[in-house]
Design goal:
mainly alpha, 3 helices, 97 residues, 0% strand
Length: 97
């Protein structure tokens, strides 16, 4: 239920959702740039920026999850095994996880 009854602006939930979406977008943008960068030192800068943005995104997710505003399901052991097998067979058939 919104807490901005008098139309005073965004609710806490709406603000957190916007921040979360901005951080996700930032992660995608930085990752794309990082993957196209061949200069080692510049790539390292983008890698650190990505790690910071990913940490921020996860913190926002955790806050929303704790408040019950972003619910997720835990994966079962079977689901994890299926994904592991799929990744192993299709992306790196010679490697073991």
């Amino acid at each position: 239920m919104p807490n901005n009854m008098a139309g005073r602006g965004l609710t806490e939930r709406e603000m957190l959702q916007l921040c979360l979406e901005l951080e996700k977008g930032r992660c995608r943008s930085i990752a794309g740039t990082m993957l196209e960068t061949t200069h080692k030192e510049l790539r390292d800068v983008f890698t650190q920026c990505f790690e910071n943005a990913a940490q921020n995104q996860f913190k926002l997710f955790e806050i929303m999850n704790q408040k019950g505003w972003y619910k997720t399901e835990l994966a079962s052991i079977e689901q994890i095994g299926k994904v592991r097998e799929l990744m192993q067979n299709n992306l790196h058939p010679d490697d073991q996880f």
